[in-house]
Amino acid sequence: MGLVFLLFLLIPYLSLSSEAKSPTTDQLTPNYYAKSCPRFHDIIRGVVVDKQIAHSTTAAATLRLFFHDCMVDGCDGSVLISSNPFNKAERDADINLSLPGDSFDLIVKAKTALELECPATVSCSDILAVATRDLVTMVGGPFYNINLGRKDGFTSNAAKVKYHLAQPTTPIDKIISMFEEKGLDVADLVALMGSHTIGFSHCKEFSARLYHYSKNADTDPTFHPKYAEGLKKLCANYTKDPTMSAFNDVMTPNKFDNMYYLNLQRGLGLLATDQVMASDKRTKPYVDLFAANQTAFFEAFARAMQKVSVYGIKTGNQGEVRRRCDAFNSIST
């Protein structure tokens, strides 16, 4: 890990970019816990390091958890809530059932440590935002500033999820529209999709590209032939074993870099929603830019993550600081 790990330890002292402001985000500040919980960053960083070293998929898992939280009614920790007899929560929506347990476990561990240090002070949504940033940095990605002071939301409804998160087969027009509704442009979309430079996807999510693709082709012709052949062998028994999966980035699966975009140019995109960006006239220029220039990708990714991190946030009496991240403080909520 070497240099990347050393830089990760220095992230509280770096400042590479700034967040856009709005009337709501003006209530956030990078020093929100400076007096109420001075060791906030140190505690999160310690939990993050231990978890990522023990389970190398934690970074990708937490990045996905963060995105699935923020895109549905904003960054308010609603995806962390467990269902109960009165409410089916977001985490039990079909698309969220594959969210890895390591990401939830990380937030539980961080919240427990922070409650021991400074009880009833740090929100679960702030923990998720900072842990995600720290993990991205730890695996080689860019550092970006996170303003703090989010409150945890009062609602979590599984029925809302499908309207805000794209499926692997969602058309690119619909995906662009979904992002634009949240103030994210095409450049943001392509940069955020670059998070697929780490992590994996289950075979069922791309099997339609491998088997019986169309009347004229058994396999999606945008696949590199040898890559498709390898995936078919890997996923041969996926209907019997739904846990079978493949790395999103076949070349550097555990490193946050721009290889994802180079893969798209070579027909090595795993999901249909990945590969289409290399040919669509709106997204292709950004794919080509990020493939040629990793710095441009990192800068665009940092900006986009900052925009996502303040989408739909709750402040003041719009939310609460949960005692447990998986449950509202009041049963009436």
TrEMBL record:
The active site is at H68 (proton acceptor). Disulfide bonds join C37-C118, C70-C75, C124-C325, C203-C235. Keywords: Calcium, Disulfide bond, Heme, Hydrogen peroxide, Iron, Metal-binding, Oxidoreductase, Peroxidase, Secreted, Signal. The record marks R64 as: Transition state stabilizer. One of its GO terms (biological process) is response to oxidative stress. Its EC number is 1.11.1.7. Removal of H(2)O(2), oxidation of toxic reductants, biosynthesis and degradation of lignin, suberization, auxin catabolism, response to environmental stresses such as wounding, pathogen attack and oxidative stress. These functions might be dependent on each isozyme/isoform in each plant tissue. It comes from the Eukaryota. One of its GO terms (molecular function) is metal ion binding. Its main location: secreted. This is Peroxidase. Residues 27-329 form the Plant heme peroxidase family profile domain. Gene3D superfamilies: 1.10.520.10, Peroxidase, domain 2. Heme b binds at H196. Belongs to the peroxidase family. Ascorbate peroxidase subfamily. It catalyses: 2 a phenolic donor + H2O2 = 2 a phenolic radical donor + 2 H2O. CDD domains: secretory_peroxidase. InterPro entries: Haem_peroxidase, Haem_peroxidase_sf, Peroxidase_pln, Peroxidases_AS, Peroxidases_heam-ligand_BS, Secretory_peroxidase.
